[in-house]
Structure formats: C-alpha cells, structure tokens
C-alpha cells in the first residue's frame, strides 16, 4: 500500500470500469491503472481519487474467483464469495446439465452451494422439478423449496444468507429479480444509480451487481448473468469425478487409479449406475468428460 491509496470494494463493473464502494459507503466510478489489470465484483481494491472519479491502483489477492470458460473466452462471475445460491423454479423447466455445471464450478473453488427451487405455489410442476432434484438431495446437496410471490421459505433463506456474501446464479425467468427485490428493499434505486454511473442504460440482470441486504453491510447478494453458457474448460477431465459428490467416493475404488469411468474394466463408478448413481447423472458425467477431454489445455 502506498500513501494516498484508499480501500474499496468493487460493486459493479462495465467493461474494465468499476463502480466501487468505500468503507464509509460512498460510491464512485474508477478506471483501471494498467491494461492488464481487471477487477471483478467482490474484489477488494486500492484506489486513488482524481477529481470526482478514481483510479484502481491494485487488486488485493482473492480468496476465490468463480468463473466459466469455454473455447473462446474466460468470464468471471465474482470474487471473494462465501457461497453460491443456484436459483431454479418449477417453471421454466430447468436444465440439469446447467445445474450440474454450476455445482461443479462452485465445488472446484471450494464454495458451498445451496439450490433453491422457487414457485412452490405451482403444485404440479413443482412436484416434478422437486423429484428431478432427488439425486441431488441424495448426494447431500441442500435443496430448499421457495415461493417468492408468497412468504414461503423466505425467512429460512434469509437466515442462510446472514453475514455472508452469496452469488446468485440461475436461468432466466426463475425469479432472480423477484428475489433481489424481496431481499433488498432499495434494489431498484441501487440499480439505477449503478446504471447511471457506468452509463450502461441497461438493467441489472445484464451485468453483475453487488447488493447489501442489511444496513450494517454484512450480508450481501451478488446477482450475475451467464448461467446459460456455463463452460468448464478450466477443469481437467480426470478431476471431474472428484467434483461430483455421488461419484467421488467410488472413484477411488476402480481397478485403475486413473480410470475415466467410461470404458475400463472393474470400474466402481459404472458398477454403481442404477444404484447410487442415476443413469441420468452418469450421462451428464460422460458428456462433460468428453467435452473437457477435447478442450485445449494451455
Ligand atoms: N408462481 C410464481 N411465480 C413467480 C414466483 N417468483 C417469481 N415469479 C414470477 O416469475 C416471473 C419471472 O420472475 P423474475 O424475477 O423476473 O425472473 P428473473 O430470474 O429475474 O428473470 P430474468 O429477468 O429473465 O433473468 C415473474 O413473472 C414473477 O412474477 C413464485 O414464487 N411463484
Ligand atoms: Zn472407474
């Protein structure tokens, strides 16, 4: 740290420009010092004021960074998280592949994940979605029922978020905006302030945004787009089974220690398909394995 540098928290980004919050709660637009520096939401930074804006001098080392990577690019969701909340709903029908990818990405960063299933008021589709989540509950994944248009489940969820920084991920239409509006009373005002500052002229769901749930600024939600195209190219294929809890304990029991669980003899994973591992989960694994094995490594 150098004299004149101040501490800040990145609460939104647009390109390489950041909207930061000071320790006293004041917010300001900052620009990066160098070409290579990129701050993401959740980053702690050192910055220097220049007139009514500022310059980011340095990004503090990160505890963790959740990101996705496909053949074309790497995109960060956010840094320094405590947990990930995957928001799904009875409708629209969710993609199990996307859910699986989000859980794997969180686990690869050592982040606990909660799955919340919204729209419990829609009885029949909810039941169907809930049973599709059965293998996840069986493997120890926490799954919460929720109805954001009613009060159901909201106080439990609030308790779960208390004192933590939670990244919310979910496909379009599940109720992410409804969730933010229920939990963050002045979310709309915060959003328009950020849009003005970063001059995006768009709405929150198009860019990652940090919200404080409480006035004392201890509990935070980060809303982020990008659930749809969840590339995991940064994960080596041989590690995949260790990041899927229902595969993990079996993976060490195969004849070959480097078993891919795709075609080797005496494979404990394949032997468990149909009991312990569902055929659907095994299909997700095999597809993802092929995808990761084919991805170029740098
Ligand atoms: N029946 C029912 N509808 C809900 C519930 N929660 C949210 N909705 C509705 O679902 C629709 C989508 O909610 P949004 O909050 O806009 O969803 P979103 O995830 O922000 O969607 P995008 O803006 O597309 O990313 C809205 O019409 C909500 O009113 C719920 O618990 N039950
Ligand atoms: Zn095996």
From TrEMBL:
Binds 1 zinc ion per subunit. Its main location: cytoplasm. The lineage of its organism: Bacteria, Pseudomonadati, Pseudomonadota, Betaproteobacteria, Burkholderiales. Belongs to the TRAFAC class YlqF/YawG GTPase family. RsgA subfamily. The keyword Cell cycle does not apply. PROSITE patterns: ENGC_GTPASE, G_CP. This is Small ribosomal subunit biogenesis GTPase RsgA. One of its GO terms (cellular component) is cytoplasm. The keyword Transmembrane helix does not apply. Its EC number is 3.6.1.-. It is found in: Cytoplasm. Gene3D superfamilies: Nucleic acid-binding proteins, P-loop containing nucleotide triphosphate hydrolases, Probable gtpase engc, domain 3. Its cofactor is Zn(2+). InterPro entries: G_CP_dom, NA-bd_OB-fold, P-loop_NTPase, Ribosome_biogen_GTPase_RsgA, RsgA_GTPase_dom, RsgA_N. Keywords: Cytoplasm, GTP-binding, Hydrolase, Metal-binding, Nucleotide-binding, Ribosome biogenesis, RNA-binding, rRNA-binding, Zinc. GTP binds at residues 118-121, 170-178. It is an enzyme of class 3 (hydrolase). Monomer. Associates with 30S ribosomal subunit, binds 16S rRNA. NCBIfam families: ribosome small subunit-dependent GTPase A (TIGR00157). Zn(2+) binds at residues 254, 259, 261, 267. HAMAP family: GTPase_RsgA (MF_01820). Residues 79-228 form the EngC GTPase domain. Residues 63-230 form the CP-type G domain. GO terms for biological process: ribosomal small subunit biogenesis. One of several proteins that assist in the late maturation steps of the functional core of the 30S ribosomal subunit. Helps release RbfA from mature subunits. May play a role in the assembly of ribosomal proteins into the subunit. Circularly permuted GTPase that catalyzes slow GTP hydrolysis, GTPase activity is stimulated by the 30S ribosomal subunit.
């Amino acid at each position: 740290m150098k004299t004149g540098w101040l501490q800040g928290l990145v609460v939104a980004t647009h390109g390489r420009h950041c909207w930061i919050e000071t320790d006293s709660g004041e917010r300001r637009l900052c620009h990066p010092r160098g070409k290579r520096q990129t701050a993401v939401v959740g980053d702690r930074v050192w910055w220097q004021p220049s007139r009514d804006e500022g310059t980011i001098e340095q990004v503090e080392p990160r505890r963790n960074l959740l990101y996705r990577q496909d053949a074309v690019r790497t995109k960060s969701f956010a840094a320094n998280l405590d947990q990930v909340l995957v928001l799904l709903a009875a409708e629209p029908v969710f993609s199990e592949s996307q859910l699986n990818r989000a859980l794997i990405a969180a686990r690869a960063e050592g982040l606990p994940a909660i799955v919340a299933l919204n729209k419990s008021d829609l009885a029949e589709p909810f039941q169907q979605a809930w049973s599709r989540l059965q293998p996840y509950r069986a493997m120890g994944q926490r799954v919460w029922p929720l109805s954001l248009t009613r009060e159901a489940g909201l106080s439990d969820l609030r308790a779960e978020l208390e004192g933590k920084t939670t990244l919310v991920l979910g496909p379009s239409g599940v109720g992410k905006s409804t969730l933010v509006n229920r939990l963050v009373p002045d979310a709309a005002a915060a959003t328009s302030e950020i849009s003005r500052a970063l001059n995006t002229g768009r709405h929150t769901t198009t860019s990652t945004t940090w919200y404080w749930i409480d006035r004392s600024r201890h509990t935070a939600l980060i809303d982020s787009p990008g659930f749809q195209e969840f590339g995991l190219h940064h994960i080596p294929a041989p590690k995949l089974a260790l990041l899927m809890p229902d595969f993990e304990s079996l993976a060490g029991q195969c004849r070959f220690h480097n078993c891919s669980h795709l075609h080797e003899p005496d494979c404990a994973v394949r032997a468990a398909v149909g009991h312990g591992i569902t055929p659907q989960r095994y299909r997700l694994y095999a597809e993802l394995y092929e995808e990761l094995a084919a991805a170029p490594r740098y």
